[in-house]
Amino acid sequence: MAGFGDLVQKAFYLGVGVASYAGEKAGGAFGDLRGQAQKLVDELVARGELTTEEAQTMMNDMVERAQTAGKAPTSTSGSASASDGPRQIQILDDDTTPEERQAAALRKEVEALRNELKRLK
Fold it and tell me: Is residue 82 part of a domain?
């Protein structure tokens, strides 16, 4: 039975390691996107198309949207129980994590801002 205990322990450590790795990757992707967005905003400020206050507001809005998009919606009623019925589960894509979807949404937003910048030139 000692072999089974070791197997369970290794499986637990593997799960913790995978979760930690995914968290690091998501944080890195978010940091990269934030850097790209900051560079774009800096370009707009340098060209005089945005004021520094508008740029700061734009960055704060993008960060806030990214953070709220990553959070799961919570139930407003505290009396939810298993007798309320089955819980709906939506599978968006088997290959992507919520962090990757959030990163993709931010990339699209940065690309849209770049296209608008090109259009304004």
Answer: no
Q: Where are the alpha helices (DSSP H) in 47-97?
A: 52-70
Tell me the whole-structure pTM to 2 decimals: 0.37
pLDDT tens readout for residues 64-74: 777 776 665 55
Whether residue 21 is contained in a domain is answered as yes
Q: How far apart are CA 8 and CA 4, in angstroms?
A: 6
| Range 91-100 contact pairs with CB under 8 angstroms and sequence separation of 24 or more | 97/22, 97/26, 98/70, 99/22, 99/25, 99/26, 99/29, 99/30, 99/70, 100/26, 100/29
Q: Which two tokens stand for residue 74?
A: 């919570």
Q: Assess if residue 33 is contained within a domain.
A: yes
Q: Is residue 79 part of a domain?
A: no
